[in-house]
Design goal:
The complex is a heterodimer.
Chain A: H1 5-18, H2 26-39, H3 45-57, H4 59-78, H5 85-101, H6 111-139, H7 141-151, H8 166-191, E1 199-200, E2 203-204, H9 205-218, H10 228-231, H11 237-243, H12 261-266, H13 292-326, E3 359-364, H14 365-370, H15 376-380, E4 386-388, E5 400-402, E6 413-417, E7 420-421, E8 441-448, E9 462-468, E10 474-484, E11 488-498, E12 502-513, E13 518-519, E14 527-540, E15 544-557, H16 566-571, E16 575-576, E17 584-600, E18 604-625, H17 631-637, H18 642-652, E19 664-687, E20 691-718, E21 721-724, E22 730-752, E23 755-772, E24 781-797, E25 800-811, E26 824-837, E27 840-853, E28 855-857, E29 872-874, E30 878-892, E31 898-912, E32 916-917, E33 925-926, E34 938-948, E35 951-960, E36 980-990, E37 995-1002, E38 1010-1012, E39 1019-1020, E40 1025-1032
Parallel strand pairs in A: 6-9, 13-16
Antiparallel strand pairs in A: 1-2, 3-8, 4-5, 6-7, 8-9, 10-11, 10-40, 11-12, 12-14, 14-15, 15-17, 17-18, 18-19, 19-20, 20-21, 20-22, 22-23, 23-24, 24-25, 25-26, 26-27, 27-30, 28-29, 30-31, 31-34, 32-33, 34-35, 35-36, 36-37, 37-40, 38-39
Helix pairs in contact in A: 1-4, 2-9, 5-8, 6-7, 6-8, 7-13, 9-11
Chain B: H1 4-28, H2 36-81, H3 86-106, H4 126-130, H5 138-147, H6 155-158, H7 165-174, H8 192-227, H9 232-236, H10 248-259, H11 261-272, H12 297-313, H13 320-326, H14 330-348, H15 355-361, H16 363-387
């Protein structure tokens, strides 16, 4: 039954007086009227009436009424949106506590005592949070712009309580929900729901009593005060009237509601002695007049002024400051900064503190060398917020995700080497089938959330920049030879020399292994991989540096998508089925980059890179049964009966294929990728000590393409081996896709004193098309997007920075995606604290990414098949939030040895907000609140290194909690990915001046936890592997002044 | 600090807000659902499917399988006695045809325990225990015949579905005396087959077939027990205590998936593939027909259509047809029924002639049967799925035609 309009309207408008939770609940008003009558006793009735009429007709009171009406009417329109906020907070808290600490034994207290305790806690928490919010309203100009609507009241009446701007109402509603929810949740958890607050008319009794007794007198002109000894503990109505006083001595005083202790702690308590002369604000301070529209919109203008003030000041004052500085002979302008435009992106202050308003991490060369990681997944395990999904155990084609962004083939992460995109086709096919060898890297930089917006096209999750060895000044060389289990070998070396004018570097590495998996019937499962890079540097003119980088890489690996069934995995996780015997990946990649770095004048440095990458690959591998069940489902279900058991036997080689129906389809996916472009970055740095500006402008013109020719051959399992079936080769996909992209960004780092404000804007314009032979040719798709963002970094002390940022992230749709597939967009927000003092550093960051549309990128490795490959699927709205912690330190021991360590922890909560059914296998049938697949809730790592004279001992451990294989809810089941703990160690000794010997061990606890059910079946983590090796290098410590790659 | 114009505008805005707030609840009032009769029809359909359709079909198949068992016992006895087995062989073949005719109706009812453990909610692969086509391997059946492992106690627990079930019985009853294995594998490579001789092969085949029929009877018994004693009939209607379905809609989708056999198997696999309409190019592919040894392909398709009609109409109980009518889409239901009638007629025209012969001599008849079945499956994939908000099985989302 619909409520009649007038009845509905009336109930809305009288709610402030009939709702027991409202300050102006009618018994309180009645009592106030009685007090007023008491005050008016003995005075002529007419005079009192005239005064009341004057109060009612005063513009200030009229605005009180208008704001009250507007608020109620708006509430009627938006519905009871805030109802349930506290309940949601409480429910969340109870679930979290139950999940983390388990359900406690209920406290054995009498219900009455529990009720008193609960009511008191609620009252105190409520009062304290009101004080805190109120204090912030007065101290933060942005908030004051809204709160002053309440303070502009020149006459006080009980209705003034409702004279509040909607923005302030919202803040107070949120505060109320959080406070009530937190206290209620805590008591519910402790008492398992036994605690109930003392209530009257359904609202907390204590608050209601105080409201009725004195609440309405606070906003009145009736001077009611308590004895000073009482006012020191309990706020009187008179004290609040002083809070509204226009007198300067009363500004920002008596901010509390009921208890005076908060004001006493803050030093803002004033005892009521004499009534204020006038209420309100000085006219010059008001941002609104006494009418509704002005009171609603004026504060926004005021808020904008509060925000824009410093920026306007900066814009106007920057050049003045610069000119003044230039005229000061004592203080020459600082030299242009080379960082930020070179291959290295991360900016550090002189003390080593990252000067980034956002999450940025760097794994340095020392750490990379310490554990001799040849698997980039291991390298990234110590970066909080980064998750990986293991596949081959070597990280040949890693699956890297960040802050909940999908990890499939690292397609949702911007991947760069020396600042240049290196994915085979970053726009048309971002799946990272190529990833540089971590053996030859000298640094890994990771940017997450707002810090990643300078780098596109993937700006939701983050960006990774891999640093290659720079051309040295002088002579530098190194040789690294190692060998170990599973006939694994490594040979890497580099030789470089140069002077101020020119230099040359040759860097090469070769890895090979027989593989740790054992193929049924025997056969190779390992790989060979080689990579060579040549860099030449030439200084042209006084300042310009030209650098040429050429690269050649190739790989031959017997890699497969086929894993194991659950029961076979339990028996021998390193087994490989006979059906994968013919699987083979081969690729070759060439890379050519020409960069030009030069200053423009004294304040601008530029770096321009022309690049071309080419990758050709061919992967033959078991794709599916010609007609049979999905391999992922088959292996995960592990049936022991029916046709499923028969198909499993065929995979194992125990049963023969009987017809083409159960023949094995081996796909040979040939792809050729081109990626080329021109990118230029200019950084303009001006300013001095007081104020400075670093303005970065970037432009990239990029084209890439992928040509796919996928064919399929049928093979019969016969006597445990594969035999070619009598069936012709069929073409399953013949397609070309291309993308052209124009990307531009402007990023300002405005420093005022120690405060950095970093607004930025990124624009992407992408034109793409996919042409499938035999299919209708769709017109090229054109997409453009503007991605604003802002960050700030401010010191809270000599060694403590606070930073925050908010930005819009984006991940483009794939060429050929149907128009209903939307690009991925999200607002990424973070707030963090960073401590850095000498060797000690710590960082805590909270983030919240609100996806408007999260997309799933279909890759074969992710379990997609056929025409879905490289297409995207809408995932709707999703919220991803979490906390990341890093802490590290170093300690010099009396014996001269040093112990250093670092620990990280990440918590990630990634949930879909909407329900839908998706063709993307990892999404499937999604309900609102389901968690994202392959996003661990908890991740942690720790690294400890002990260095003593010539010996170094390192221990590193990483933990990842369980992950879902498909969107759903925790806890994980057998069909999901169990937790994983890995322990690695390294030992090295300087044998001679030039020779160092080392040994490394990975997975020392012999974890055999499966790391993925994708693409098809259970896949193991690499087993314990011991390697020993030697390194030859120059006797002296390497020249720290080596020129950073590409930097002038 | 107030201006007259500002004050006036403010009151105007308030008046506007008042009007909006007053009438907003009317616009947002949730309309009465009116879903009750549809919910009732859906519940009735789910309650009826087990007891009125599936269990009787299983019971019928079991009765026919018992007759097969008896016929095989006679055949085995005749062969053991060294008498002429011709009459008993024919009788056993007829009994097998009767079972298969009955079972091909159940093929359309693969939901819950009858369904695949890989794809059906609550699937226990019981269908595969009875009949596993297209996962058949006649050579493996010959190998088991030769090595005699069918006599092992653990035979059923150690065997895969390609050496058990009515499909293996078909090979044992209808195949030529020679085995179908290549020369380089057993029982040819080791001479085992030749050593047995034709009489022993015939005796073993009868014994093996009898053993398999016993397995089929057990599976049919198990299947009925799941529906009746173990309560899957109630679970399908979500009234049982242990249901694999989260909602009635999901249970309805399971019924729909079972009906989809008509698209994936009957139309595509049994008709379109042998006709050369898919996979094997433009020529016909007679070797791909179902029931190659027995030539029972045509009647099997007729039985499929009967099974479809039974589950679709719910026999004496509620069915999908009632649901469509209740929703006001009687026209779609009429089209489905008319399509089924047409398909029945087109398939009946195939008679008992093996499809392999028809494909060569009268391919137009097979094509007409295909086209007639397609009329029904097009409606199933189109209007029926849309109107009942059903999800088409992933493997059939793309049109195979």
């Amino acid at each position: 039954m619909a409520t009649p309009p007038l009845e509905h309207l009336l109930s809305l408008l009288i709610a402030p007086f009939t709702d027991a939770g409202s300050r102006t609940f009618w018994p309180g008003l009645a009592l106030t009227a009685l007090v007023a009558a008491w005050f008016a006793r003995g005075q002529p009735w007419r005079a009192s009436w005239t005064r009341l009429l004057a109060l009612a007709q005063h513009p200030s009171t009229r605005l009180d009424v208008q704001l009250l009406l507007a608020r109620q009417l708006l509430r009627g329109l938006r519905g009871a949106a805030t109802v349930g906020g506290a309940f949601a907070v409480a429910a969340w808290l109870v679930l979290r506590l139950d999940h983390s600490l388990g359900a406690p034994t209920p406290i054995a207290l009498s219900p009455a005592l529990l009720a008193v305790l609960y009511s008191l806690s609620l009252f105190i928490a409520w009062d304290a949070s009101r004080f805190a919010a109120h204090w912030l309203m007065h101290k933060i100009p942005l908030l004051w712009a809204f709160h002053q609507v309440h303070h502009s009241a020149e006459r006080l009446s009980p209705l003034t309580f409702h004279r509040v701007h909607p923005v302030e109402s919202l803040i107070y509603d949120l505060r109320g929900a959080l406070t009530t929810g937190a206290v209620a949740g805590l008591f519910f958890w402790l008492t398992r729901g036994q605690a109930e607050a003392l209530t009257l008319f359904g609202v907390p009794a204590l608050g209601l009593t105080l409201n009725v007794l004195t609440g309405n007198l606070r906003h009145s002109e009736l001077w009611v005060r308590f004895p000073p000894a009482v006012e020191a503990w309990l706020m009187s109505p008179a004290q609040h009237q002083l809070h509204h006083s226009a007198a300067p001595e009363h500004v920002d005083k008596n901010l509390g509601t009921w208890l005076a202790c908060w004001d006493r702690l803050a030093g803002s308590l004033v005892i009521a002695e004499s009534p204020p002369v006038a209420f309100g604000l000085p006219a010059g301070e008001r941002n609104h007049r006494d009418d509704l529209l002005s009171a609603l919109f004026g504060p926004f203008v005021g808020a904008a002024k509060a925000l824009a003030g410093p920026r306007v000041f900066a814009a106007l004052g920057l050049f003045t400051a610069q000119t003044a500085q230039a005229q000061d002979p004592e203080e020459p302008p600082p030299p242009p900064r080379a960082d930020g435009v070179g291959a290295e992106i991360l900016i550090y202050a002189e003390d080593g503190t990252p000067r980034v308003a956002g999450s940025a991490h760097r794994v340095d060369e020392e750490t990379l060398e310490r554990f001799e990681y040849d698997n980039v997944e291991r390298v990234l395990a110590e970066v909080p917020g980064v998750s990986t999904r293991g596949e081959d155990g070597y990280g040949l084609r890693p699956n890297i995700g960040m802050r909940g962004a999908s990890s499939d083939r690292s397609a949702k992460v911007t991947l760069m080497e020396d600042g240049v995109l290196f994915a085979p086709a970053p726009y048309a096919a971002p799946a990272a089938y190529y990833f540089p060898m971590s053996t030859r890297l000298v640094g890994v930089e990771v940017f997450k959330g707002p810090a990643a917006t300078r780098f596109g096209p993937q700006t939701v999750g983050g960006a990774i920049n891999l640093l290659t060895r720079p051309v040295p000044l002088g002579l530098d060389y190194g040789l690294d030879l190692a060998g170990g289990q599973y006939r694994s070998g490594k040979a890497a070396g580099y030789l470089g020399f140069g002077n101020d004018r020119a230099g040359l570097l040759i860097d090469a590495a070769q890895l090979s292994t027989a593989g740790f998996k054992e193929l049924d019937g025997g056969g190779p499962t390992g790989f060979q991989r080689g990579e060579m890079m040549v860099k030449g540097r030439l200084r042209l003119g006084a300042e310009g540096v030209l650098e040429l980088k050429l690269g050649l890489s190739d790989e031959t690996s017997h890699e497969t998508y086929l894993g194991l069934s659950a029961s076979d995995y339990d028996e021998d996780p390193l087994r490989r089925y006979a059906a994968s015997a013919n699987d083979l990946m081969r690729w070759t990649r060439t890379q050519a980059e020409l960069s030009w770095s030069a200053p423009l004048g004294e304040q601008v440095v530029t770096r321009t890179v022309l690049y071309h990458h080419y990758l050709t690959r061919s992967w033959t591998r078991l794709d599916r049964f010609n007609e049979g069940p999905d391999l992922h489902d088959l292996l995960q279900t592990d049936p022991s009966s029916g046709q499923g058991a028969l198909y499993l036997s065929i995979l194992r080689g125990d049963e023969d294929s009987a017809s083409l129906d159960d023949a094995l389809a081996l796909a040979t996916n040939d792809r050729r990728f081109h990626s080329a472009g021109l990118q230029s970055t200019a950084r303009w740095s001006v300013g001095g000590e007081a104020i400075s500006s670093d303005l970065e402008l970037g432009l990239r013109l990029h084209i890439d393409s992928v040509a796919r020719l996928h064919t399929q051959d049928l093979w019969m399992m016969t006597d445990g081996a594969l035999a070619r079936a009598e069936a012709p080769t069929t073409t399953t996909l013949d397609s070309d896709a291309w993308a052209q992209a124009l990307a531009a960004h402007v990023h300002e780092d405005l420093r005022i004193g120690a405060l950095h404000v970093l607004p930025g804007l990124r624009a992407e314009l992408i034109r793409s098309q996919r042409i499938d032979v035999g299919a209708e040719v769709l017109d090229p798709r054109l997409a453009g997007i503007l991605l604003p963002g802002i960050g700030a970094l401010a010191p809270l002390g000599p060694w403590l920075d606070v930073f925050a940022g908010s930005t819009r992230g984006f991940s483009p749709a794939s060429p050929g995606d149907p128009v209903e597939v939307k690009p991925e967009t999200a607002w990424s927000n973070e707030l963090g604290l960073r401590h850095h003092q000498g060797a000690r550093h710590a960082e805590i960051v909270g983030f919240f990414n609100a996806y408007q549309n999260l997309t799933g990128q279909c890759t074969l490795s992710g379990g997609c098949l056929g025409d879905d490959i490289d297409r995207q699927f809408n995932g709707g709205a999703a919220w991803i939030s979490g906390v990341e912690l890093v802490a590290g330190s170093a300690l010099l021991l009396p014996d001269g040895s040093e112990i250093s360590g670092q620990a990280t922890y990440s918590y990630t909560r990634a949930r879909f907000q909407t329900g839908f059914v998706s063709g993307f296998p990892q999404f499937g049938d999604v309900s609102p609140g389901d968690s994202l697949p392959y996003v661990p809730e908890h991740q942690a790592s720790a690294r400890l290194v002990w260095s003593h004279r010539v010996i170094d001992l390192g221990l590193g451990g990483s933990f990842r909690s369980g992950m879902l294989d498909k969107a759903g809810t925790f806890p994980i089941t057998e069909a999901d990915i169990p937790p994983l703990f890995l322990l690695d160690a390294s030992l090295s000794a300087q044998a001679t001046e030039r020779l160092r010997v080392y040994a490394t061990g990975t997975n020392l606890t012999r974890s055999d936890a499966l790391v993925s059910w994708r693409p098809f079946g259970a896949r193991p983590t690499a087993p314990m592997t011991i390697m020993v090796g030697l390194k030859v290098g120059p006797p002296e410590p390497k020249d720290e002044a080596a020129v950073s790659s590409g930097a002038p | 600090m107030v201006t007259e114009a500002g004050d006036r505008r403010s009151w105007l805005v308030l008046a506007g807000l008042t009007a909006l707030a007053a009438f907003q609840p009317l616009g947002c009032e949730r309309k009465g659902s009116g879903d009750a009769p549809i919910d009732a029809s859906l519940s009735a359909l789910l309650e009826s499917a087990g007891p009125n359709v599936i269990v009787p079909a299983l019971a019928d198949a079991e009765a026919k399988a018992l007759a097969l068992d008896e016929a095989l016992a006679r055949l085995e006895a005749t062969l053991t006695a060294g008498d002429d087995p011709a009459a008993d062989q024919l009788a056993a073949q007829a009994a097998w045809r009767a079972v298969m005719s009955s079972w091909q109706r159940v093929e359309l009812m693969q939901l819950g325990p009858l369904g695949s453990s890989l794809t059906a909610l609550g699937g226990e692969d019981l269908r595969d225990e009875v009949y596993s086509w297209p996962s058949v391997n006649p050579c493996r059946v010959d190998q088991v015949t030769a090595d005699g492992s069918y006599g092992d106690e653990a035979f059923f627990t150690e065997s895969l579905v390609n050496t058990t079930g009515l499909d293996a019985v078909e090979h044992l009853l209808f195949a030529a005396a020679e085995n179908v294995c290549p020369a380089q594998v057993t029982p040819n490579s080791d001479g085992a087959w030749e050593a047995l001789g034709p009489d022993e092969v015939a005796r073993r085949r009868a014994a093996y077939a009898r053993k398999l029929t016993a397995g089929v009877l057990t599976a049919l018994d198990d299947a009925q027990a799941r529906f009746v004693e173990d309560g899957f009939s109630e679970a399908l209607a979500l009234s049982g205590s242990n249901t694999p379905y989260e909602s009635e809609q999901q249970a309805l989708n399971a019924v729909y998936d079972a009906l989809f056999y008509l698209e994936l198997r009957t139309k595509d696999k049994k008709l379109a593939t042998p006709l050369g309409l898919r996979d094997c190019g433009e020529t016909i592919c007679p070797d791909d027909v179902e029931h190659l040894p027995s030539g029972f392909g045509g009647p099997a398709i007729a039985a499929n259509l009967a099974g479809f009609r039974a589950l679709y109409t719910g026999q004496d109980g509620a069915g999908v047809d009632d649901l469509l009518v209740e929703l006001g889409h009687g026209d779609v239901n009429d089209a489905v029924i008319a399509g089924l009638d047409g398909a029945d007629a087109a398939v009946a025209a195939l008679g008992d002639t093996p499809l392999t012969e028809l494909l060569v001599n009268e391919p137009e008849k097979v094509l007409a049967a295909h086209d007639a079945v397609k009329v029904v499956t097009d409606l199933l994939k189109g209007d029926v799925a849309t109107l009942l908000a059903l999800q088409i099985p992933a493997e059939a989302a793309g049109d195979n035609d």
